[in-house]
Design goal:
Order of helices and strands: HHHHHHHHHEEEHEHHEHH
Number of domains: 3
Strand order of the largest sheet: 3-2-1-4-5
CATH class of the largest domain: Alpha Beta
Structural class: alpha/beta
Mean pLDDT: 89
Number of helices: 14
Largest sheet: 5 strands, mixed
Shape: elongated
CATH superfamily of the largest domain: Ribonuclease H-like superfamily/Ribonuclease H
Helix content: 25-40%
Strand content: 5-15%
Distance between the termini: 70 Å
């Protein structure tokens, strides 16, 4: 049997110090392993036997016994530590660390690099180029960034919110509208919007059914067959959904939706529509339809972009929001489309039909969406419980 590659000599007190390291509960396990290697080698155990007992490779035993002898003049704990990593000096001054962190917070474009964000390798190279350090490894720099909670590989969205002078007024109006949706039987409240870009994706292989211990498996690859747009209205008082599915989302399409919803819900004295700030929801075509429906054909609407009611988005919104007509539009605040209840229903459609759906064509997608709407109305339709009243929500 082969013996050790070199003789491990333990000086006075080495045995006791190593035993203390092994017995110490808070000691790192890699240090405990190395101390055990040295203890066993110091008693003359063969390297292959040490490896077998401790569950390591023989070259691990060789590495640490050799290192023990090479650093014979160093303290025991230092002899059991890893060697310094290549490319990274042992220490940097506080000034150097601050400069590196400041560099990480700046844009790579400011230093002539045509990239959107730093990688550890490129940031290390730039720190060397700027003369901050003579040498630094990408791994060391990565650890430095992590220690300081800097993550150049990540980003998040933020919203430069545009002021809405009518924000509180809009919120109060819509919340009151929702609360009274069923109190006046002669009026109806309908939440309207579009769900665009619904993809008709056909999986290239059938789904595999769920079995015990394994969920349903869906083929990853698919064939695209185009998209459809759903324009729909959600009856706030009853939870019934009605809509049209087609290829486009134009102002003409939106007017057709309003006409369709009125036809499907006849004989109401007032139709309240909740909509977001999209331009097609305040269009010239919509103003003309509302004017005609309310018997105001003789009213001068002006010219779009020039004068009168049709002049601008704001003048058209003001006209459509007037409360003494048969059709009244109520607009959510800017960046407040979440107040539109139909957005909740769109989430239901996505989860139950679209996300795991398999559609052989645009027509197939359209039929499945419309079929689900009928199914929803028959089995699930009920008003959503709306509790938000425009006050700050507690965490």
């Amino acid at each position: 049997m082969r013996g050790p590659n070199c003789v491990v000599e333990l000086g006075e007190g080495d045995h006791e110090t190593l035993r203390k390291i092994v017995r110490k509960r808070t000691e790192k396990q890699n240090i405990v392993l190395r101390a055990n290697i040295i203890l066993m080698a110091g008693k003359g155990a063969l390297y292959q036997d040490i490896a077998k007992v401790l569950g390591v490779q023989r070259n691990t035993v060789t590495t640490w016994t050799t290192r023990w002898q090479e650093l014979a003049d160093k303290p025991i704990h230092e002899r059991l530590q890893d060697r310094p990593r290549p490319g990274a000096p042992d220490t940097f001054t506080p000034e150097q660390l601050c400069q590196i962190i400041a560099l990480a917070c700046e844009s790579p474009k400011d230093y002539g690099r045509p990239i959107t964000h730093w990688t550890h390798r490129e940031l290390a190279a730039e720190a060397i180029k700027q003369g901050i350090v003579e040498n630094i490894s990408a791994n060391y720099l990565g650890r430095l960034l992590k220690k300081n909670d800097l993550q150049p590989h990540r980003n998040q969205y933020w919203l430069n919110s545009k002021a809405d002078e009518k924000k509180e007024e809009r919120i109060a109006d819509i919340c009151e509208l929702y609360a009274n949706a069923l109190k006046n039987k002669q009026e109806i409240v309908i939440s309207v919007d579009e769900m665009t870009g619904i993809q008709a994706l056909e999986r290239i292989a059938p789904d595999l059914p769920m079995v015990v211990g394994k969920p349903q498996s869906i083929e990853f690859e698919y064939t695209r067959h185009g998209t459809q747009t759903l324009l729909a209205g959600f009856n706030v008082g009853t939870g019934v959904i009605k809509g049209l599915c087609g290829d486009t989302r134009t102002e003409k399409d939106f007017v057709e939706l309003i006409k369709y919803l009125i036809k499907e819900n006849p004989n109401y004295s007032v139709y309240h529509f909740v909509a977001d700030q999209l331009n097609t929801h305040k269009s010239e075509s919509l103003v003309k339809f509302v004017s005609e429906f309310c018997g105001l054909q003789d009213q001068d609407l002006g010219i779009k972009g020039e004068s009168g009611i049709l002049q601008s988005m704001q003048t058209r919104e003001d006209y459509l929001s007037i409360g003494d007509r048969r059709i009244v539009f109520h607009y959510t605040p800017k960046h407040g489309s979440w107040m539109n209840q139909i957005e909740i229903w769109f989430g239901i459609l996505m989860r139950k039909v679209i996300k795991r759906g398999n559609f052989s064509s645009q027509l197939n997608l359209k039929n499945k969406v419309l079929t689900f709407m009928d199914y929803f109305n028959e089995t699930m339709a009920k008003p959503f419980k709306w509790t938000y009243q425009g006050k700050a929500l507690s965490a």
